[in-house]
Design goal:
disordered N terminus, single chain, 8 strands, 9 helices, about 240 residues, alpha/beta, about 20% strand, eight-stranded mixed β-sheet
C-alpha cells in the first residue's frame, strides 16, 4: 500500500472513530436520530457519508435509515441523511459508558437509560438475521423504533419499551389504525411476559426482549442466524498420526 493510500485509510479510520464514539451520547437522547452537528458545526451528511459507510462496512456500527412511507419496499422512501446509529454489539455500547454507568447497567439499576441498550440489542438481532434496518418518524404521527419487511409480505412495526408504561405507544397505534398503510399486526418488545391485545382491530403482540431473534427470523431475508450457522459445512479434522 502506498503512503498516499495509507494516509487516506488513516483519515477514514480517524473520522469513523469520531462518529463511533458519538453513539452512546446520541442514543441517550430522547430523540435518537444522529445529529451531525455533534461531530462538526454546520456539518452536512454528504461530507460524512463515507465515514458512516466505512463504519457499517467494517461491521462496527448499524445504520438505521428513516422511511417516509411505512409500506412495502421500504428502501423506496429511505432517507439516508435521517438516521439512527447503533453499535454492532450491545456489549461494545455498554463498554463505551463511564465505568460507574456500565456497572449500573450490568447490575440492572433503573438509573440507567435502558431504552438505548434495549434498542441497540434489537437492532443487533435484526441485523444478525439479515434484516434491512429502517425506522419510521413523522412530525404528526410520531416515531416507531423499527419497521421490518416480512418474508411472507407486508410490514411489521416493532416498538422497544424499557419501562412500566410499555402499553403506551401512540405512534404504533396510529400506524395500525391507518388503513392505507395495510399493516395487519405489530410487536412490542418489553421486559414483560408474552401477551396479546387488539388495537384498531389489529393484532398487537407483547414479547419479552429475549425473543427479538425469533421476531427477526420473520424478516425479509427469510434466514435466521441459527439456520445459517446450521448450513455451514466444515471439513473433517485430520489428526496427525
Amino acid at each position: 500500500m502506498s503512503r498516499r493510500h495509507r494516509k487516506i485509510c488513516g483519515n477514514a479510520v480517524a473520522a469513523g472513530q469520531g462518529d463511533f464514539q458519538e453513539i452512546p451520547a446520541q442514543l441517550s437522547k430522547e430523540n435518537k436520530r444522529f445529529q451531525l452537528k455533534a461531530v462538526a458545526k454546520e456539518a452536512k451528511y454528504n461530507r460524512f457519508a463515507n465515514d458512516f459507510a466505512w463504519l457499517t462496512a467494517a461491521r462496527a456500527a448499524l445504520k438505521v435509515d428513516n422511511v417516509s412511507d411505512p409500506r412495502p419496499m421500504l428502501a423506496r422512501t429511505a432517507e439516508v441523511n435521517r438516521f439512527k446509529l447503533y453499535s454492532s454489539d450491545v456489549g461494545m455500547l455498554v463498554a463505551q459508558y463511564p465505568a460507574q454507568t456500565a456497572m449500573s447497567a450490568l447490575m440492572g439499576e433503573r438509573s440507567v437509560n435502558f431504552g438505548a441498550v434495549y434498542e441497540n440489542f434489537v437492532a443487533q438481532e435484526l441485523a444478525a438475521a439479515g434484516v434491512e434496518l429502517y425506522y419510521y418518524h413523522h412530525s404528526k404521527r410520531g416515531e416507531v423504533d423499527f419497521l421490518m419487511e416480512k418474508a411472507t409480505g407486508g410490514i411489521l412495526p416493532i416498538e422497544v419499551k424499557s419501562g412500566k408504561d410499555y402499553k403506551l405507544h401512540t405512534a404504533l397505534n396510529t400506524l395500525l389504525g391507518t388503513s392505507e398503510f395495510g399493516i395487519s399486526e405489530a410487536v412490542v418488545l418489553t421486559e414483560a411476559n408474552v401477551s396479546l391485545q387488539t388495537r384498531c382491530g389489529k393484532r398487537l403482540t407483547y414479547l419479552p426482549l429475549y425473543m427479538a431473534g425469533f421476531v427477526a427470523a420473520e424478516g425479509s431475508s427469510g434466514e435466521s442466524s441459527v439456520k445459517l450457522l446450521n448450513e455451514i459445512e466444515l471439513p473433517p479434522i485430520v489428526w496427525p498420526e
